[in-house]
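Q: Got a minute? One more chain.
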Amino acid sequence: MRTLRFKQAGISLAVITTAIGLTGCGSESSPSPSPAASAATTVASAAPAAETTKAEKITLSFFTNNSDRSVGQGKLEQELIDAYMKNNPNITIKVETLSPDPQYQDKIKVYNASNQLPDIISAWGNTNFLKPLVNNNALAEINKDDLKNMGFIPSSLDGFSFDGKLYGIPRNSDFWVLYYNKKVFADNGLQVPKTEAELISVFDKLKAKKIVPIAMDGREAWTSGLWFDTLLQRASGTWDTSKKAMDRSGSYKDPATMEAAKAMQRWVKAGAFGDGFLNQDYGAARNMFGQGKAAMFMMGEWEMGMAADTNFPEDVRNNIGAFPIPSIEGGKGSADDLTAWFGGGYAVSNNSKHKKEAIAFLEWMFRPDGWAKGVWQNGITFPAQKYDQYLTGKETEVQKDLTKIFNNSKTYSGTVAQDKFSSDTQKTFYDSIQKLEGSKMTPEEFANGIDEAADKSAKATK
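A: Always. Here it is, folded:
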């Protein structure tokens, strides 16, 4: 799962600088960003030689969850690796990929159990993923001072830190939205909904035209976990309901949990996701939206790269927008409250024979002119570093929409609930959500079930 950690105080400076930097962005007819290759070309010319003894030949293993190397983060990741190897001919970086994320994380558990982690791994800044690795002394410590001039947003490193030590580097600032096809909306006389009632009205009009309202990855329950977090805030008006339930100063038996669960079932019964969405995975949902077969797609901001994905028709790419999850019936929260967190990144094996070289590569990769510039200017995602200096005035419409959502939000969630559960209780959380979506569990049963899981999790992680 694309998990991150976000603190409101930590992002305020980034919000301000982004808002200032966006003044004077291009018009609606602005062209798409330049190809990712341009970013790789820029960073390649600046790649420093790694410090090795007598140009020793070194091979680093790089295990990533970005399996698609032709688009998005996987493409930029590979181009940065290639650029580094070109300028450091004594370094070879061998890439292994595995997706989706649950399978990747299972493989990490196998590597950890056998003390054979690859030199560099994709990692997530949350307790569930990192703590077993840290407890096993499996991750190398990274010197925070070496990152101080790289523009990381304050608190972005917190999720990768334990007992004052840093064990990873975050790559993205992530948040949860609804993407939509502006042409489909316009052709059907639809406006962007701000309330649940308006959203369900949109569902009805789209279904009447035999258009699936929302493409949804229902098979991988982490997506529904983020949807639940958002609706729980919409019901209660605060992110504290979930936080208190997880630290046991509160409970998921709070009435707001049941209201959020009822809202989830209302969306499903209203036909929000079409038939069989619980068997539909991420790739199928993304393709359904990208091919114009669904009007909306519920996913994280990292999918802004769809606007530059040539696998999709031009009339879809040029008409992708985004809006926040609407308020819900009887809820106290609003669309100005954003499920947002610092996401995945990278860590280095403590058992690596080449820790110094592995860390040196990551530090080079996260030079501001590297990852941050590349993901922003190629319309891939929001970096965990300040990027206002890389605004071009040619941002895509979806980049502009997402920036407005990010900047206009009044509160931010921080680490999402599912990332606070222990491994075994997280499965209970996921199973409960999917049973709720499939009407195999009532909202009350759901609230009781995940509260019991939260209690077990808190005891297990003490």
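A: Residues 34-172+343-391 form a domain with the D-Maltodextrin-Binding Protein; domain 2 fold (CATH 3.40.190.10).
Q: Perfect, thanks.
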